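Q: Hi! First time doing this. I have a protein sequence and I read that you can turn it into a structure. Is that right? Here it is:
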Amino acid sequence: MQILTTGGTIDKVYFDANSKFEIGDSLLPELLAESNIHEGYAIRELMRKDSLELTDDDRDGILEAVKQTEHSRIIITHGTDTMAQTAQVLKTLPDRTIVLTGAMQPARMRRTDAIFNIGFAWAAARLLPPGVYIAMNGEVFEAGAVRKNLEAQKFERIDDAAR
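A: Yes, that's right. Below is the predicted 3D structure, encoded as C-alpha cells:
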C-alpha cells in the first residue's frame, strides 16, 4: 500500500491560543502503529500544506504521484476543506483504489479522530474496488458525490445534503 501525505489538519501543530499553526512532521507512522499496522506500506510526503492553500498545480502533483506509484491501493492524507476537490481530480485513474482521509482535530491532540480515520482508511483501501473514495469518521463516500458540511463539521453525500 502506498501512503501519500499532503498535510492538512491531521499534521497541524498549534503554537498558541491565537491558532497560529504550521504543518509539522507527519505522525502517520505512530498512527499506523497505534492501529496495529506495522508493515505492508510505503509512506511518501508530497507536501505540508493546509488544504485551503492547495493549488491546481498541487493537485496535478498529487495526481502525478499516484500515477507514478507501482501500488494499486493508495491512501492519501489530506486536509478536509478541499479533500473533495482533490478526489475529483483523481477520478481520472480508473485502475487504482484511492482513499483520501484526514482529521477534524490534529493527531497531536488528545481528542482526535486521526487514529480511527487512518485505520478506517486502511481497511477501506484494502477492501474497496478500484475507484476514488473519501473515508472519514466511519463513512465512505465516492468522489464526486460528497461535500464537507462546514456547519456540521462532517462529510455528507451530495444527494443526502439536498434533502
